[in-house]
Amino acid sequence: MAPPLQPLRRFREAPGPTRRSLLAGVAALGALGAAGCSRVPTAAATGGGDLLDRLRAAGVVRLGIAGEIPFGYIDRNGELTGEAPELARVIFKRLGVDRVQPVPTEFGSLIPGLNSQQFDVVAAGMYVNAERCEQVIFSDPDYQMLDSFIVRKGNPKGLHDYRDVVEKKARFATGTGYAEIAYAVEAGYKKSDILIVPDQVAGLNAVEAGRVDVFAGTALTTREVVKKSRKAEVTEAFKPIVGGKPHVDGGAFAFRPTETRLRDAFNRELAELKKSGELLRILKPFGFTEDEMTDLTAKELCGG
């Protein structure tokens, strides 16, 4: 199911627990989420957990989502969609679980909600990082993400990465809580000089109006938002420099630490979808391209 054309919300953030509010529509589904939040027995701490068996017996898996387009959200028809839920439908069907049920929550509540058994799996395009890997276990990433810039047509200042922004003293903007804030600061841009706007739509407007020279976001969100613009374009995707090295983010599904059996079964099916090319077919309606396909592993992104 292709997503409706709406502003994309941010799905990663600078270090810290904060995350932006839910999209309109998720709040309206609060009752649905509450209906799916009954607790289940604690998984066995040994043998990789028994959740997969219980899900097969129940015939349904509860997905924690954060109401973010294009990752996991309720569409205008009240239906669950997004790259993660659609992928979950396919994989869990292969694992013998026929139905998925959304449990909407705020992004910052996803890991606590998972570990308190309010839902079974986080299906929200969550970035894998070392801090989160101490709290949950991740599948291997189903996508990777680079950065890109929104600039005026023709890219008059020749801005292609954060170093260019610093060296050319460009007026720089990015979104509230975006990881790009830290990337720009690491490149030498003064944090107090960054224009912080709500999202990529506001960033596009700032570039078109000439208030800034560049807006930084993910390759996917910037690519989508400029499609109808006559004044702005998107640059080629690039890897930001983190700790002196080129950095690539990857998004994945999260599981409770005891449920290694379910995570491993999920990974096996995901690997098959990658190998066959089916993964790209599932994600493509949500703006993903071949550039977002990845062989990164959770172990690499967890730093182990």
UniProtKB/TrEMBL annotation:
Domain of life of the source: Bacteria
UniProt keyword annotation of Signal present: yes
Matching Pfam families: SBP_bac_3
Domain Solute-binding protein family 3/N-terminal: from-to ranges: 60-290
PROSITE patterns: TAT
SUPFAM superfamilies: Periplasmic binding protein-like II (SSF53850)
Key words, A-Z: Signal
Database matches in NCBIfam families: ectoine_ehuB
Name the record gives this protein: Ectoine/hydroxyectoine ABC transporter substrate-binding protein EhuB
Protein's organism: Streptomyces heliomycini
Primary gene name: ehuB
